[in-house]
Amino acid sequence: MPTVPTTPSAAADPVITTLADRPELASRIWDMRDSWPAFSGEDALAWLLYPRIVAEFPEYVWIATDGDAVVARGFALPFALHTEERGGTLPANGWDAVLMWAFSDRRRGVLPDTVSAIEISVATDRQGRGLSGRMLAAMRESVRAAGFAELVAPVRPNGKPAEPDAPMEEYAYRTRGDGLPHDPWLRVHVRAGGVIDSVAPVSMTVSGSLAQWREWTGLPFDAAGPVRVPGALVPVHCEPERGYAVYVEPNVWVRHRLR
Questions:
Q1: Environment class of residue 227 by beta-carbon count within 10 Å: exposed (0-12), middle (13-18) or buried (19+)?
Q2: What is the CATH number of the domain that holds 21?
Q3: Count of beta carbons in the 10 Å neighbourhood of residue 174
Q4: Distances (CA, A) of 135 to 1, 52, 58, 62, 259
Q5: Residue 199, beta-bridge partner list
Q6: In sequence order, what are the beta bridge partners of 207?
Q7: Which domain holds residue 168?
Q8: How many CB atoms sit inside 10 A of residue 84's CB?
Q9: In whole angstroms, how large is the CA radius of gyration of the chain?
Q10: Maximum Cα–Cα distance for the chain, whole Å?
Q11: Is 124 buried (19+), middle (13-18) or exposed (0-12) by CB count in 10 A?
Q12: How far is CA 147 from CA 2, 21, 139, 204, 212, in A?
């Protein structure tokens, strides 16, 4: 995929390229401090497939650098959405489904017709400066230049952890007085040209023993029922008598028409 160069507005602005253009940065993608909660890295598919994205799809990995420092990263994957089996409908098990479909399609030689964003993360000390929007714009332009008509994204609304009990079906469509989404990250997508499509109710699933959840969160996990965990979009369901807890995260599908 060709990289669409970005033109910095000031000398100190980060430069955004793909990993295909800067393969020497592969080992440094994970160095930056981000705002993902610790438990999110325990999604089984992410644990298995993220290293393969870096190795097999470097043209779908975007990196923002400021001098020698990596200050943002983005991942996407191409897959076939408009097949007889999938029918062009974005899946209910959003993020996890895209990971499975993309690698399955690659293994079977299925030609992709759509690209899905997987992640855009900004270093914690660079947040609030518009870098996430620049990363999304770079992703959109690269995907368009590669000939794709659509970029989709199972968006993880960044304001939702403050309202874990709010149904995602209501939160996703909540708007401000100007008609833009209430959620800041959804707002970035809509301003860039995205349209909210649907809620993916089982986009990511993280299960673990009570000991694991205590390690990931610092919480006791000793009572049955919902546990509100910092950084989680919805409560984690705890089953102390059975010794485990499960987090099922809903995301919001956004479609970006590129032509």
A1: buried
A2: 3.40.630.30
A3: 14
A4: 16, 21, 16, 8, 19
A5: 252
A6: 246
A7: 15-205+248-257
A8: 5
A9: 18
A10: 58
A11: exposed
A12: 10, 19, 13, 29, 44
Q: Which two tokens stand for residue 89?
A: 């409908």
Residue 130 located in a structural domain? yes
| pLDDT tens for the chain, residues 1 to 259 | 544 444 444 446 899 999 999 999 999 999 999 999 999 999 999 889 999 999 999 999 999 999 989 999 999 999 999 999 999 999 999 999 999 999 999 999 999 999 999 999 999 999 999 999 999 999 999 999 999 999 999 999 999 999 999 999 999 999 999 999 999 999 999 999 999 999 999 999 999 999 999 999 999 999 999 999 999 999 999 999 999 999 999 999 999 999 9
Residue 256 forms beta bridges with which residues? 151
pTM (two decimals):
0.93
Is 212 within a domain?
no
Please tell me the distance from the alpha carbon of residue 145 to that of residue 152, in angstroms, as a whole number.
16
In a domain, 61, yes or no: yes
Q: Does residue 121 sit within a domain? A: yes
